[in-house]
Write the structure tokens for this entry.
Amino acid sequence: MNHNSKLPNVKTSVFTIMSDLAYKHNAINLSQGFPDFECDTQLQQMVTKAMESGCNQYAPMEGAMELRKEISKKIELLHNSFYNPKDEITVTAGATQAIFTAISAFVRHNDEVIIFKPAYDCYEPSIELNGGKVVPIQLEAPYFKTDWNIVKQHISSKTKMIVINNPHNPSGTIFSEEDLLELQKVTEGTNILILSDEVYEHIVFDGATHQSVSRFPDLKKRSFVTASFGKTFHVTGWKIGYCCAPKELMDEFRKVHEFNVFSCHHPTQIALAEYMKEPSRYLELNQFYQEKRDLFLSLIKNSKFKFIPCQGTYFQGLDYSEITNESDVDFAIKLVLEHGLASIPISEFNVNNLDNKILRFCFAKKEETIKRAAEILNRI
Ligand code: PMP
Ligand code: GLN
């Protein structure tokens, strides 16, 4: 049979390649973003309790009401912004599905979607599968700041959506209030939708406040916010996330969600709802990860790597240009094979694989893992 691939340029993801390589060579894996420590045992017990009490059949299509209510309360507490649990919040199979569903519900053939590079890898295939055209804007290392005049120049009559990711994976930058006000200004009076990927919403550092689009009424009315419990409660394998949007947008989102997954794993939703009742469980995350970032950086401060400023996420970019001129892919592979440490080469996420000689290291790891990784980096 002859197949004409709908995604001819998609290869195995760099996360899979690097994690497999790390496993094969028994390397410390700071590549794919996931914790190497367990989630709270109380949360595990809550899932067991939910299973034992019979929550084992389909959850409601929109998500368990208990969980939608807790999500709504959290957003109101943090951002003073109300989403109605009834028709403005949907529980999804991770943020990945929320992103795919929001794009599928709105992007049509030849619609343009602006994304910022380096970009997380699921945006482009989702846009292309729906016939949309990706309009990339390359951000410049080492600060990866967004120039809103350049964004304005990329907007056309065909622009359907702008995808933002705040805090930003892989660069670790965050948007300030001014950034969001600029975004509000460039989209004012248009029909452009915003897809705001906020999976690292609870991981911002140095006293900064996470600037969710939901804080800005004129942005909120045109926005989808996507989030992930995987990042917040150290359970990336559960693949539970959510999407919030005003009712008229959420109505369309749910038409796709219903036939994409229909509903998500029920007992974990019940458990997460109970777990979220105590806000400290997500509020303490900033401090928890800031300590890990600071430990990692203090241990390698005398190494030959230069730090990329990390304001949020659990990823630290390290510039290795003082060590070698090799490409970041070659250097990342060499780090695994010769030094036993896996990372992610940032060029994979850039326009034309622009190589800034930066590797991304995930510090969502136990103290001992961070120490062992730092010893290796100090020897290079
Ligand atoms: N967006 C970004 C920026 C991510 O780093 C990830 C990776 N977890 C996702 C979305 C996907 O989240 P989930 O695992 O909940 O699907
Ligand atoms: N979000 C994770 C990261 O950025 C990877 C998730 C995946 O493997 N797709 O590393």
About this structure: Residues 44 and 91 are 19 Å apart (CA to CA). The two ends are 50 Å apart (CA to CA). The first helix runs from residue 14 to 24. The chain has two domains: 14-32+284-379, 41-279.
